[in-house]
Design brief:
The protein is mainly beta. 12% of the residues lie in helices and 37% in strands.
């Protein structure tokens, strides 16, 4: 066995020593390499490089940036003022008129409701025959039109609210359209509303083909000819003049649920469905910037709306200053869903929120 052990390679040996037998414990000698290994250890300690490290006593509070107090950042919404009741299912989307007088909401109960902002009175209910995915009021104050996204169609509706001259002029503008002699091929179909649809306020129906990708949100740049498209994980920026892809922004999250563009156009804000930011405990559903005040809001499935003061600087190398100033509560969590959309008033520091509990709430 000893001969076989000696003929083996050192890496193949099960034991790195040869066992020996002694008559008693007192006859067992000391470790033969004890002094040699102790010398090598002392030599390592002697030859190792040494340097003196200066210990700095730093207060942890000094490392945290000094943020302004919330009362110094007023005005911002702090109190729930009105509750708009009437929908029988979750309210997915909101939009407000340019004047700030009228509010439109779309719901899974297959209806669109028009509200008077200051009184929470439902002025008109429009059944659309499908789940309403998005609504948008025309930002041009001289044209009274609301776009409603239902399944694969977009309904252009004249709500006929407010000034009669205004919404009457909108109908005259649509009726004065003359089709060109040679129709160009378009990716959508423009269909004139029927008599029954016209009586409800529908003027045109834009029919789309089925989408091939998961597009979450599209927005236009407020100043420049750029077009933002938010997909599940990326934000693509297109130049409309050159008709080409300019940038592809990484969101660092698994699912983008909403997007908002700063009024200056320098900072896009995305809300991730699966991440936690801004002290929310659950997934975010919507984000929004105010057009005039340095405020933005985020709505989450935890049933809260967090309002933050966001100061954006002209120097793009300097990060924006984000200060949470208020947590607004009021929505009841329904089917594990909370706040689905948030929207700022165009002129006042007010914020609207729609939830899965079927209500729309105004915080002032």
């Amino acid at each position: 066995q000893k001969l076989a052990w000696e003929q083996q390679e050192p890496a193949e040996r099960k034991l790195n020593f040869v066992p020996q037998q002694y008559r008693c414990l007192r006859a067992v000698p000391a470790y033969s390499r004890f002094i040699h290994e102790r010398f090598e250890r002392c030599l390592d300690l002697y030859l190792c490089p040494r340097q003196r490290k200066m210990r700095v006593n730093v207060d942890p509070e000094d490392l945290i940036p000094k943020l302004p107090k919330p009362r110094d950042l007023q005005p911002f919404p702090t109190t729930q003022a009105l509750v708009y009741r009437g929908h029988t299912s979750l309210v997915r989307c909101l939009s407000i008129s340019p004047s700030g007088q009228w509010l439109v909401s779309g719901s899974d109960d297959c209806t669109v409701r028009f509200w008077e902002v200051c009184t929470a009175r439902c002025m008109k209910t429009l059944p659309v025959g499908g789940v309403v995915r998005s609504v948008a009021w025309n930002p041009n104050p001289t044209v009274c039109l609301v776009a409603i996204c239902v399944e694969q169609s977009v309904l252009l509706v004249n709500p006929c609210l407010g000034d009669k001259l205004l919404y009457g002029a909108t109908d005259q503008l649509l009726e004065s359209y003359v089709a060109p002699e040679e129709e160009r091929v378009q990716p959508v179909q423009w269909v004139t509303a029927t008599v029954e649809e016209h009586s409800k306020g529908v003027r045109l129906v834009v029919q789309h083909s089925k989408s091939k990708g998961l597009v979450q949100r599209v927005l236009s740049h407020p100043i420049r000819p750029y077009f933002f498209v938010a997909t599940q994980r990326y934000v693509r920026v297109y130049n409309l003049l050159k008709q080409e892809l300019t940038k592809k922004l990484m969101t660092n999250c698994k699912w983008v649920s909403s997007m908002a563009i700063h009024p200056g156009g320098t900072w896009p804000l995305c809300s991730p469905r699966s991440c936690r930011i801004l002290h929310h405990k659950k997934a975010l559903r919507s984000v929004a910037f105010h057009k005039h005040y340095p405020l933005f809001a985020s709505g989450s499935d935890d049933g809260t709306v967090i309002v933050c003061h966001g100061m954006v600087y002209n120097d793009l190398l300097q990060n924006p200053l984000l200060v949470p100033v208020k947590v607004l509560k009021g929505h009841a969590i329904t089917l594990d869903l909370g706040v689905l959309d948030v929207l700022f008033h165009p002129t006042q520091p007010w914020v609207f929120s729609s939830g899965a509990d079927g209500t729309v709430r105004l915080y002032t």
